[in-house]
Amino acid sequence: MRYKLTTDEVLILRDGRPFGDSGIFGGISLKWPYPQTIAGMVRTSVGLKQDECYFDQSDKREENLEKILSIGISKILPSAFLNNQWTPLMPVPADLVFTENENNEYLNVNPILYKSIEDSSGTDIKNRLWMIPSVDLRTKPAKEIPFFTHWIFFQKYLAGKLTSDTAFSFQDIGINLPIHDFRVHNAIDNNTYVTEESRLFSNNGFYMKSKSGSILIDLAIFFDVTNADVNISGDAYLGGERKRVVLTKSESEFVKIPDYFENKKFLKIILTTQGDFGGWCPEWLLPNFDAETIEWVNIPGTNFEIRLRSACVNGWEGVSGWDFAKKQPKSMKKLVRPGAVYLIEIKDVNQSSDIAKYLWGCNLFSKKNENNGYGQCIIGLAEVEETV
């Protein structure tokens, strides 16, 4: 089933960092919803559309729990309304470095090259098959870069058509952060219903529009539900603050895979949603850096053999949430940010196209979170300078 999420309200979403950290009160406000937040919204909507008391039926609790958790988010795709049409949006890849152009209206784009470790390299990595991301820069990275990239620009990146110091306007690359909203409120005394002196609290949120205000953003959601008759069109509520969003049925298609992956030795896996791997990489793909070689591994559920040769990971994000089964908050965990890049080598180059098709738009097989929309990825060509 496919739905489009839109809203004119300010969305207030927080991560799962513990209260009391330096400079943090009630968690850090998010700039964009996590996949599990969207999954929770969909499951809640499906349940309430069937029965207003769906989540309060003690005699059917276990049955309802099993049904509602079987609903899985298969794909998530944001898009922006540009030039009188909707165009898909993608995260900024971690292996692109942006520098400021002499003309302030432009950014220079510098793709990272993956190189073999040379004998003279100053590194403590024992495994000589691991490749080092490298970029030759003469200036500092740009202070402000897009929050999302346009699909047209992203296609050039996937096809390896970006060269060092290529200049693009900010608008041609993508869009900036959604409109930020910060409000300070007075606390109200429950007895007198008047403001209490020196008691303030703030809400920090965003609108699904770009800073310019002229670019609208929506979110296409693809999910599987056992009861095909359930129609969740209408109002829904997103996140712990239960901000109102609108869901409408959509004919949106996920971005289509290009046809240039035949007979490729190296490919790149790019995360388009957060990765929930328990570390910086899926455990099944993680190599042993103390070994002299990198072992081939099977993509789970297939006979395709690949191995990880390098990676560009752009940090982590904290997440918590509410555990419906245990009726308690979830413990915080760290997610890999969207845009992370994993360079893989294909054992049989004749299978490279089939591997690309298999991985395109799927998740990276984190079994415990396969239904929550985490680890969604697409595939691109890789620029490699291999000497080993």
From TrEMBL:
Superkingdom in the source lineage: Bacteria
InterPro entries for the chain: CRISPR-assoc_protein_Cmr3 (IPR019117)
One Pfam family linked to the record: Cas_Cmr3
Record's protein name: CRISPR-associated protein
Originating species: Desulfonema limicola
